[in-house]
Amino acid sequence: MSHAGGETDWKKIPWLKKSESPEYIGRAVAALAGDPHVMGKSGKTFHVGELAREYRFSDIDGRRVPPFRIVEPFVRMVKKFEKIQRKQGPNSGRDPARSTST
User: Fold this and answer.
1) Residue in 17, 33, 13 with CA at minimum distance from that of residue 65
2) pTM for the complete prediction?
3) Per DSSP, which regions of 5-73 are E strands?
4) Diameter of the chain by CA atoms?
5) Helices (H) and strands (E) in the chain, counts
6) Separation CA 8–CA 2 (nearest Å)
7) For residues 56 and 93, what is the distance between their CA atoms, to the nearest angstrom?
8) Alpha-carbon gap, residue 90 to 75, rounded angstroms
9) Residue 34 CA to chain centroid, in angstroms?
């Protein structure tokens, strides 16, 4: 994307044609910001496509882009990480330089 064309050039890139526009993500943020019960979503992650269904918004071209899912590789990665954590102990991921205890 060129800075001269701004975000309007996103669909000119072949591999981005089927993706969502930057505005789609912005609409998700706006929907969450306007939700009086947003604290119920605190600490969770969401796909923009899921939020579009729930809050009934669409992309600038009228589409509701389905959630992008890369499940299996991510699940394997998490399981591998958990296995390493179990072997190393619960505090192994902490940075001792950032510790607040004395």
Assistant:
1) 17
2) 0.56
3) none
4) 56
5) 3, 0
6) 9
7) 40
8) 20
9) 19
